[in-house]
UniProtKB/TrEMBL annotation:
UniProt keyword terms in alphabetical order: Signal
Signal peptide bounds: 1-21
Domain of life assignment: Bacteria
Organism, as annotated: Rhodoferax ferrireducens
Keyword Signal among record annotations: yes
Upper lineage: Bacteria, Pseudomonadati, Pseudomonadota, Betaproteobacteria, Burkholderiales
Annotated protein name in UniProt: Lipoprotein
Length: 290
């Protein structure tokens, strides 16, 4: 009987140890450092930097037409860490690129397949860094399975901007856009879904090239095929102000269908970034809808 009791107690202790180990595994986990790969396994326990383990379920319902029930269940996407931002002594943010994948775990690369920017916020305690806010989907950007060229800018103490600049062409019309996301405290905000940066429609009608030919430039147009849209820009942050300088030319149709004189473009727009919003305070974007 004693032998059986000892055996029973031994089994109970093993069971208890296994249960405790399971409980510890399910508790909030911590990272000792702000290494991006170490932080990634907090929102995505099975994530690794290579192979199919980069593919994880995410909720994209905040920025897509994904039904809520599907969003909760998770959309399979390839997740890559982009930036770790130290907001202050005890708070940090991890910014990710999120690319939905097909049945073979390859990112969708169709012309209209954009990527997503995600953000995760962490707080430091005696045990290390632990996640306090999860945002799988903050903004969409880009085409063909790429969110574009990204950067991170400090606007002021505790306030940063994530930018993604992307461009594409459709039927001879080309453009570039700038997506701006703000990071502050324990939340990311979409500040602007797409500031128009450039337009070039020469591939559609060759009208801009025709303007450079003096003989062709003298011809009167009878329809919209000779409209020329040729505007480029440069942008930069100065503190919490975003400045965009546009240069180029426009030759458009008037209200009666007549072709108007070519207009030289030189315009500066200034936006101010405050918590949760980006406000235009000077100038106007000269790029027409296309």
């Amino acid at each position: 009987m004693k032998l059986f009791s000892r055996f029973a107690i031994h089994c109970a202790l093993i069971t208890a140890s296994l249960l405790l180990a399971g409980c510890e595994k399910s508790d909030i986990r911590y990272s000792k450092t702000l290494d991006r790969n170490a932080l990634m396994v907090l929102p995505f326990p099975g994530w690794t930097s290579t192979g199919d383990d980069k593919v994880q379920p995410v909720d994209l319902s905040a920025t897509t037409d994904t039904p809520t029930e599907v969003g909760v269940a998770g959309t399979q996407a390839e997740i890559s860490p982009l930036y770790v931002v130290r907001l202050d002594d005890t708070h940090a943010a991890l910014v990710t690129q999120v690319l939905p994948v097909d049945e073979n775990n390859r990112p969708f690369d169709c012309h209209s397949c954009s990527g997503t920017i995600g953000a995760y916020f962490f707080e430091h305690s005696a045990d290390g860094w632990h996640m306090i806010t999860r945002q799988d989907s903050v903004a969409t950007s880009g085409v063909e399975g790429n969110i574009g060229r990204t950067s991170i800018t400090k606007l002021e103490e505790g306030h940063f901007a994530v930018t993604a600049e992307w461009g594409s062409c459709w039927q001879g019309y080309c453009g570039r856009w700038l997506v701006v996301v703000g990071l502050q405290g324990d939340l990311a905000h979409l500040l602007n879904a797409g500031i128009a940066l450039s337009v070039d429609n020469d591939g559609a009608h060759g009208a801009c090239s025709a303007l450079d030919n003096s003989a062709s430039a003298k011809e009167d147009a009878k329809d919209g095929s000779d409209e020329c849209m040729d505007i480029q820009s440069e942008w930069k942050f100065q503190g919490n102000h975003l400045q965009v300088l546009y240069t180029g030319r426009l030759r458009q149709l008037g209200t009666s269908g007549e072709l108007l004189p070519t207009k030289k473009i030189r315009e500066r727009t200034i936006y101010v970034a405050t918590p949760g919003q980006l406000t235009l305070i000077s100038g106007s974007d000269p790029i027409p809808d296309f």
